[in-house]
Design a protein that fits this description.
The complex is a heterodimer of chains A (217) and B (214).
Chain A (H helix, E strand, L loop, with lengths): L1 E10 L2 E11 L4 E5 L6 H8 L7 E6 L2 E3 L10 E4 L11 H11 L5 H14 L15 H13 L5 E5 L10 H13 L3 E5 L3 H7 L2 E4 L7 E4 L1
Parallel strand pairs in A: 3-8, 3-9, 6-7, 7-8
Antiparallel strand pairs in A: 1-2, 1-4, 4-5, 9-10
Helix pairs in contact in A: 2-3, 2-4
Chain B lengths: L1 H41 L3 H16 L2 H11 L9 H27 L2 H10 L3 H31 L11 H12 L3 H27 L5
Helix pairs in contact in B: 1-2, 1-4, 1-7, 1-8, 2-4, 3-4, 4-6, 5-6, 6-8, 7-8
The chains are: A alpha/beta (217), B mainly alpha (214).
The structure holds adenosine-5'-triphosphate (ATP) and magnesium ion.
Pfam families (chain A): ABC_tran
Keywords (chain A): ATP-binding, Nucleotide-binding, Transport
GO molecular function, one term (chain A): ATP binding
């Protein structure tokens, strides 16, 4: 179980997140929804350790977890809204870079694992391609493969449907559900309530400022 | 005419060798120094940052010719003496490093911060992020500007003439004055053209290579 405990974050004295408490069961999907400016991306940056909360803490299975400590690789993976693939590296190198550099896997082992992962995500024909040669949907799957290659316990997505052609939304939903079946805990930030209903076990509504409520889906 | 050209060619080629020595050693010194200075320009530590900005401003705001004269003829007045070649290298490296520093600073800043964050969440350390993500992308960005400076340097190297170094330009000028003949100067022009054409060709190849990604 992944828990957020009394998370507070404000920017220049303006509170964005106040005493936020939230928990996600292992292997389930939490969708975080809310209007623009509610603090969804802010929350994701805190969970991935890109920013530090003013106060509060994170726990994984009851043990405090510091997201910015990633010596052996982060336990929380991130798929950015704009994917942020490394443009100068091939698809396969995008996926194997961190396992080699951070997890100290051999190039050969990382490559075997990376190829398998890309194949699983339907990208076996693209391993040698560069990001600019891919469609939006393919880029997103490379970003997911890159995060999964680090074997995170939790995978977070920022607006996974926003950069995609509407016809591809069902595919992402299926992919997220497939990963759930493999036991992955996932947190999906989205403003698309319909999409959230389709995939989530639990929906958390982030309200701008004070009022926040938590429903079970 | 061909016979005359052949007779002065050894002198011109020896001058060209000096030109290439100034050029090559300046590149070898100024690019690493420029890289170091660019990191300083990006540093948060204000005194360092301000000091380097002042340095870049001075080097780019005054003529290289003045700097050259200052190092070779000026510094001996206060007891600092360099031989001609060392003086030339010091002036050229210090001057070109300032230009390169500005180019590299801009290049680093042009790499999307999202790339750094993506590397960070994957667990890459800062040195790994610099070597594997930032530097490769910066090279592609700065290549055209660095190329311009390299071509300029070939031509600027002729300024060493003023402190009495026997470079290509001096060799041509000496022969032209001695023999009262225009040909040496034309040959000098052709050799400069060949040198810049060669550099341009190499730079084009490099730029084409880096087109493998966007
Ligand atoms: N680094 C920052 N400095 C100052 N204010 C910030 C910073 N980051 C976010 N904010 C502010 O915090 C609020 C929440 O931003 P956030 O990006 O988390 O919203 P969001 O819920 O993701 O919105 P959207 O749906 O538009 O992506 C916004 O008002 C934003 O202006
Ligand atoms: Mg957002």
């Amino acid at each position: 179980m992944f828990q957020l405990e009394n998370i507070n974050q404000s920017f220049k004295g303006r509170p964005i997140l106040t005493d936020l408490n939230l928990s996600v069961e292992s292997g389930s999907i939490l969708a975080i929804v809310g209007p623009s400016g509610a603090g969804k991306s802010t929350l994701l940056r805190l969970m991935s350790g890109l920013d530090h909360p003013d106060s509060g803490r994170f726990l994984i299975n009851g043990i405090p977890y510091e997201p910015s400590h990633r010596k052996q690789g982060a336990r929380i993976g991130v798929v950015f809204q704009d994917f942020r693939l490394f443009p100068h590296l091939s698809v396969l190198k995008n996926v194997t870079l961190a396992p080699i550099m951070v997890k100290k896997q051999t190039a050969k082992a990382a490559k075997i694992a990376g190829v398998a992962l890309l194949q699983q995500l339907g990208l076996s024909g693209q391993t040698a391609a560069y990001p600019f040669q891919l469609s939006g949907g393919q880029r997103q799957r490379v970003a997911i493969a890159r995060a999964l290659a680090m074997q995170p316990e939790i995978l977070c997505y920022d607006e996974p449907t926003s950069a995609l052609d509407p016809s591809l939304v069902a595919n992402v939903a299926q992919l997220i559900l497939d990963l759930k079946n493999q036991g992955m805990t996932q947190i999906v930030v989205t403003h698309d309530i319909q999409f959230a209903n389709q995939i989530a076990d639990q929906i958390f509504e982030l309200q701008p400022k004070e009022v926040q409520k938590n429903d079970e889906a | 005419m061909i016979h005359y050209s052949l007779s002065i060619l050894p002198a011109l080629l020896s001058g060209a060798r000096m030109t290439l020595a100034v050029f090559g050693l300046t590149i070898i010194g100024a690019i690493p120094l420029g890289l170091l200075l660019s990191l300083g320009l990006l540093a948060k530590f204000k005194p360092l940052h301000d000091g380097l900005n002042l340095y870049v401003w001075l080097m780019r705001g005054t003529p290289l010719l003045l700097q050259l004269i200052f190092v070779f003829y000026g510094l001996p007045v206060v007891g600092v003496v360099f031989n001609r070649f060392d003086a030339a290298l010091i002036a050229f490296i210090l001057n070109y490093a300032a230009y390169f520093a500005e180019i590299f600073r801009g290049g680093f800043q042009a790499v999307d911060n999202g790339q750094v964050e993506a590397a960070e969440v994957l667990g890459l350390t800062a040195p790994q992020t610099i070597t594997k993500i930032i530097v490769p992308q910066t090279i592609k960005i700065v290549l055209p500007s660095v190329g311009n400076e390299v071509i300029n340097l070939i031509k600027d190297s002729s300024l060493v003439y003023v402190i009495g170094i026997g470079d290509l330009l001096r060799a041509g000028n000496v022969a032209s004055a001695r023999d009262v003949n225009l040909l040496p100067l034309l040959l000098v022009g052709i050799i400069y053209l060949l040198l810049t054409a060669m550099c341009t060709w190499i730079l084009r190849r490099l730029e084409r290579y880096y087109r493998y990604y966007r």
